[in-house]
Specification:
The protein has about 500 residues and is α/β, with parallel strands linked by helices. It is built from 17 helices and 17 strands. Helix 1 crosses helix 2, helix 3 crosses helix 4 and helix 15 crosses helix 17.
């Protein structure tokens, strides 16, 4: 792991023990006092001054370093609460503060970059305190305390690299997006020592009920008397408005201290996604079924019911096709920096008719008719189940462009349309089906970005017009910026 350091320590260190004078005997109070005695704020507000734990931080430290330490400790905090710094301070205390001989402390996180943040903070704690610096050897990816034979190592959360660990204390950062395999490897590494603790910290997971963070939370809530597991959660009250600053203060104990309210105001929806804001800033669990992609108010704000698209106008068509159950639809988008989206055609499955099938020939005829009416530069289409029709239409001279609805493609395209709605860089017709499909959509965030999904797989609330609109908008804005030559061939867009 790159840290800018050489492979060996900078100089010889002392084997003299650290002073424990004045430290309380009670372990929770002792841990807090040790951190305040030996840790210096590494950056930001108060940098270079002794770390003074707030009461809420003392509650967390005291829960983890209880007289009977838990095997598993989960901590849920909104962003901006100094999670990584607090986690690093606890790791350093477990490393040299408890006086354990042969302590093995592991710092792990979702990836190498995040793991390095925790480790570098531990290194800065050592560098900023002369007593620690005299006694701890600093290597590229580890700290060694020769007097006790203890070590602190950093690892990215790769299950293979974590196999075979025997830790006394492990901190796991960004717990909300850790894979289940990683968590289970670390959890099952315990048992070789009489005492070992896995302390996990993060914000509510974008993966919702599929996350290990949710599983640990629910396990604790089901059995709060189980002393082997502890859970601490800071969150705004359910049902609060996103702009309720009293709710912000409940969720973020650092607000008004080293977290500034103006930074949260600058991120208020619709400037950012409401679902992400609730998770990241309010500490709330937003489950997929509740995570609306956008509101009717945001959609209506860009409606232009009086605009028409004259015949011959250069456009892109987004084509979202189904065989049965879902809708099949065509959405047009004018090729310009601020495109106009409009519904060309829609085929709905009739209620209580499971035998209904999409009229394929009518769909093909509608696409051809649209290409005769407007200057259709591309028909952006997902080839799934419509390969024959795409080939037929391409053979008739239409520019059929493959737009596979893969995560990589749809995450970027979905964000582009969302940003355009928020910034007012788009208009659309007042088609009621279009509005319904948009507000039916739920945001699905997998940690890499947001896609739109139905409430449930078999939900009757359709979103197909929105999907077609996302495809059309993505290609229209690209063509408006690139102005490529027209090519009437079937091709794939990576």
């Amino acid at each position: 792991m790159a840290s800018g350091r050489s492979g060996g320590p900078r100089k010889a260190v002392s084997n003299a023990p650290l002073s424990t004078r004045g430290l309380p005997a009670c372990e929770p109070d002792r841990a807090c006092a040790w951190i305040e005695k030996y840790c210096v704020v590494p950056k930001g507000s108060g940098a270079g001054k002794p770390l003074r734990l707030r009461q809420w931080q003392r509650d967390i430290v005291g829960t983890v370093f209880a007289e009977q330490m838990p095997r598993l400790a989960g901590i849920s905090l909104p962003r901006g609460s100094g999670k990584s710094t607090l986690l690093s301070a606890m790791a350093l205390h477990a490393f040299v503060g408890r006086g354990e001989m042969g302590a093995s402390v592991v710092c792990a996180a979702v990836d190498q970059r995040q793991a390095e943040i925790v480790f570098k903070t531990c290194v800065r704690f050592v560098e900023l305190n002369p007593q620690l610096e005299k006694r701890i050897k600093v290597y590229q990816d580890k700290l060694i305390h020769p007097a006790s034979g203890s070590e602190l190592r950093v690892y990215p959360a790769d299950p293979k690299s974590l196999e075979g660990l025997d830790f006394s204390f492990c901190v796991l950062d960004e717990f909300g997006v850790i894979s289940r395999d990683t968590f289970e490897v670390l959890a099952h590494a315990q048992g070789k020592r009489e005492q070992s603790t896995l302390a996990c910290i993060g914000t509510p997971s974008p993966m919702g009920t599929d996350s290990v963070m949710w599983s640990l939370r629910e396990a604790y809530r089901a059995n709060p008397d189980d002393t082997s597991t502890r859970w601490i959660e800071y969150a705004a009250p359910d049902g609060c408005d996103v702009d309720d600053e009293d709710a912000w203060a409940i969720a973020s104990p650092a607000l008004g201290d080293f977290l500034h309210a103006d930074a949260l105001r600058a991120l208020l929806p619709p400037k950012t996604s409401e679902n992400v804001f609730r998770r990241a800033r309010l500490g709330q669990w937003v489950l997929e079924s509740d995570a609306q992609w956008t509101t009717r108010a945001v959609w209506d704000a860009t409606c232009d019911p009086d605009r028409t698209v004259p015949d011959g106008t250069p456009i892109v068509i987004g084509f979202d096709g189904s065989w049965k159950g879902d809708c099949t639809c065509l959405v047009g988008a004018t090729i310009e920096p601020v495109p106009h989206l409009f519904v060309i055609d829609l085929w709905k499955p009739p209620a209580n008719n499971p035998d209904w099938r999409v009229p394929v020939e009518r769909v093909e005829a509608a696409i051809e008719a649209a290409c005769k009416r407007w200057d259709v530069r591309e028909v952006a289409c997902d080839p799934s189940r419509w390969q024959r029709s795409i080939s037929v239409l391409a053979g008739r001279g239409l520019s059929m462009v493959e737009f596979a609805q893969s995560p990589n493609r749809m995450i970027s395209a979905t964000k582009s349309l969302y940003d355009a709605l928020v910034d007012g860089d788009i208009t659309h017709d007042d088609n009621p089906d279009f509005a319904e499909h948009v507000t039916n959509a739920r945001a699905k965030d997998d940690g890499f970005g947001t896609q739109v999904k139905k409430v449930t797989k078999h939900s009757e609330k359709k979103i197909d017009l929105l999907v077609a609109g996302i495809m059309a908008h993505s290609r229209a804005t690209w063509l408006a910026s690139k102005k490529p030559k027209r090519a009437k061939v079937y091709r794939s867009v990576a």
